[in-house]
Amino acid sequence: MKCISLFTFLFVFSCQVQGQKSYTLFYPYAERDDAAYQWPFNSAYNEKDSGGYYYAATVYKPFVVLKNDSEGVEMAPPPSYTIDTVYIAFSHENNSGKKDTLVLKIVDIGKGNMPGTKVLWSELFVTDKGLSKKNDWHNGYTHRLFKPNLTITNGQSFALVFEYHGDKRDTLGFRAIYKQDPKKDSLKTSIGYVYPATRPTYKKNNWLKQMPAVKKMSSASEMELPGKKGYTPVQHWDFYVRVRTKQ
Buried-most residue among 1, 105, 142, 156 (CB within 10 A)? Predict the structure, then answer.
């Protein structure tokens, strides 16, 4: 798992400031996840393309607070808190020379613990250059830091939504973290060889959606591999979130 250096950064970054208390929210540590898989995203894919996703979301209900480098603790959202920082890992290549748009949104929570439609905050960035080394989305991850500084009140929860819109010749690789099922062997699928995941505790917190023409969201955590060979390695999207409260 490639999160240790990122964790170290966030652990230091989440230190307490006088009069404030900070929490880092990260589901994979609650599940003791031990592996990661890179999923290709592109809004220009259609039903004939494999891996045709463009939308990934994590619902933060309940909160899972990072306690140390291998453990998460569940808690209810504080009555009032500020979403200070969002840190995401992804890879990206641009072969078209056209502009690709990446959008991060903070939204409310809808029915069934799905991301809602009310946008509380959003930011986009546009690039016509590949962001990964040698312009290869398989060649490691890049990271992006967002500073929403958004205050949530009345003990409400929130969801993060990440969208990618680009030319079909371009690809964004988005990282999902999961716990391998030691009882199952690797399986060849349309996205290549994968190691089946165990079913997570948090089944309705991570979502994905296919190309924009498809409106239905899928629970990433509950997707099964062909022939019921286990669960897909899309358990938790690689979002780190820091929130702060007044002590």
Answer: 105
pTM given for the model: 0.83
Element housing 53 (H / E): strand 53-60
Of the listed ranges 53-57, 126-130, 154-158, the one predicted with least confidence: 53-57
Q: Rounded to an integer, what distance in angstroms lies between the CA atom of residue 150 and that of residue 120?
A: 8
Q: Hey, where are the domains in the chain?
A: 4-246
Q: ∠28-235-198 over CA atoms, to 5°?
A: 95
Indicate whether 45 pLDDT > 70: no
**45: closest CA among 208, 165, 215, 131?**
165
CB-based burial, 65-91: b 16+ in 10 Å, e otherwise: bbeeeeebeeeebbeebbbbbbbbbbb
User: Could you check whether the bond before residue 40 is cis, i.e. omega within 30 degrees of 0?
Assistant: no
**What is the Rg, in whole angstroms, of the alpha carbon atoms belonging to the chain?**
17
Most confident of 27-36, 146-155, 197-206: 146-155
Cα separation, 232 vs 180, whole angstroms: 10
Alpha helix ranges (H) inside 99-153: none
The CA distance from 106 to 126, in Å, is 18
Tokens 């748009």, residue?
101
Beta bridge partners, 22, equal 244
Helix (H) or strand (E) holding 27: helix 27-31
Confidence of residue 18 (pLDDT cuts 50, 70, 90): low
Q: Which residues pair with 173 in a beta bridge?
A: 40, 91
